[in-house]
Design goal:
By secondary structure, the chain is α/β, with parallel strands linked by helices. It folds into two domains: 145 residues, Immunoglobulin-like, CATH 2.60.40.3500; 231 residues, 3-Layer(aba) Sandwich (Aminopeptidase). It contains nine helices and 18 strands. Helix 4 packs across helix 9 and helix 7 packs across helix 9.
Length: 406
């Protein structure tokens, strides 16, 4: 059923509505015309006002149960979650930028709901549009049978293409670093007051990129350069596409458990080093789910065995990289967490052939860390510490790899 709605909605929006409105401009969500309400026994109704008509599609996903609506393209900035969501039958909502040119709205369901009707009407005079979506209760088996994202090759993963290495003046190759600003677009990450993790990490990544480039010994690529959602799988694929030598994911999460504060560097491990690290890794993976990523059919046991073999070489290099980054940040005064080296099963660190680490600059749940991360001067010192750590790691890594080759 969901794929039927997808096809009709997209075809209708691309043809009939195009007569009334040019879809090339960014549409705006209209808060006064937008709401999600409980209609009792008849189900749940979503009304979404838009400043203009746009192509869209609707589909369902399971584990957890979700309704996903994609639009080309919507500015959600005026929408308020509390005013928009007026029923407890929808557990949570997320909306924001998704892949370039597309925006996404995700409804996480408390129980299975099926799409009964969906309709987008465009006013021929003003060009404004109104989307009406009606959901009705269904059983688990029926929901599962119709769930699944429409398959579109290239929707999220980039085409493989390795960028040729640029030699330095002394003939050695610059170290290519992939910086990964955590979260983005529909996924804000940790939120405290008027700030959020995705914005802070994009800012810091840009600052770190400039610090690395100024040394002359690094090339820098970023998984995102603006407020776009990037799936965990895509982040790894982008690192491979760029031919990255090192992958550094940058975060500043929030933990309600305990009194987490200070910088931490994580490496990949199937068994988490502690409970807090395990919960943090689960939250990172859940961000992809809530953003409407379809993970069904992604497991491949044979591939996993081969990847595990490749990681036997990469793992000690990642561990050494993590230690060097911890030392570099500590030299700049930190502050560091009492256990600055930890590990967990972070999906974003699972590139088998690229030394990968996840850096938590601090925790937004800590007032001290939030103050530090919001301070440009403090961020500059931490960026310098990471640059020092990378420089020291590269020198040590070159020596170790030359000894292995003898």
């Amino acid at each position: 059923m969901s794929r039927i709605f997808y096809a009709l909605a997209l075809i209708w929006a691309l043809t009939g509505a195009a007569v009334a409105q040019d879809f090339s401009a960014l549409a705006r969500a209209l808060p006064e015309q937008s709401r999600i309400v409980d209609e009792g026994n008849t189900g749940v109704r979503l009304d979404l006002g838009l400043s203009q008509g746009v192509p869209y599609r609707v589909f369902t996903l399971r584990d957890p149960y979700r309704i996903v609506l994609d639009f080309q393209e919507v500015d959600w900035s005026g929408l308020n979650r509390e005013a928009f969501l007026r029923t407890s039958r929808i557990s949570s909502i997320q909306y924001g930028a998704y892949v370039p040119g597309w925006s996404r709205l995700v409804l996480e369901l408390g129980a299975p709901l099926a799409v009964e009707t969906v309709d987008l009407r465009v006013d021929e005079t003003t060009g404004a549009a109104h989307l009406s979506l009606h959901l009705k209760g269904t059983d688990f088996d029926s929901f599962a049978a119709s769930a699944g994202a429409p398959r579109q090759p290239g929707w999220d993963l980039p085409e493989p293409a390795v960028i040729p290495a640029l030699p330095q003046r002394d003939g050695t190759r610059a170290l290519r670093v992939m910086l990964d600003p955590g979260h983005g677009g529909i996924d804000p990450g940790a939120e405290v007051a008027d700030t959020n993790e995705k914005t802070l990490m994009l800012t810091f990544s840009r600052e770190l990129r400039e610090a690395l480039l100024r040394t002359g010994g690094f090339e820098v690529v970023m998984t995102r350069v603006d407020d776009q959602f990037v799936s965990l799988e895509r982040r790894i694929a982008l690192a491979h596409r760029a031919g990255a030598d090192v992958f550094i994911s940058l975060h500043a999460d929030s933990l309600s458990e305990g009194l987490a504060h200070g910088a931490v560097v994580y490496t990949l491990s199937e068994e988490a080093s502690d409970i807090a690290s395990r919960k943090l890794a689960e939250r990172h993976d859940r961000s992809d789910l809530i953003a409407g990523v379809d993970l069904s059919g992604s497991d491949d046991q044979v591939a996993d065995v081969l990847l595990d073999l490749a990681r036997q070489e990469t793992k000690p290099r990642s561990t050494a990289l993590a230690q060097s980054l911890v030392d570099g940040m500590a030299q700049q005064g930190g502050p560091m967490n009492r256990r600055p080296l930890r590990s967990a099963s972070f999906s974003v660190l699972k590139a088998a052939d690229i030394p990968s680490v996840l850096v938590e600059l601090g925790f937004l749940s800590s007032p001290r860390d939030l103050k530090n991360i919001s301070d440009p001067g403090w961020r500059a010192s931490m960026a310098h510490g990471l640059v020092l750590g990378l420089e020291n790691w590269r020198q040590d890594d070159l020596v170790k790899r030359s000894l292995v080759g003898q």
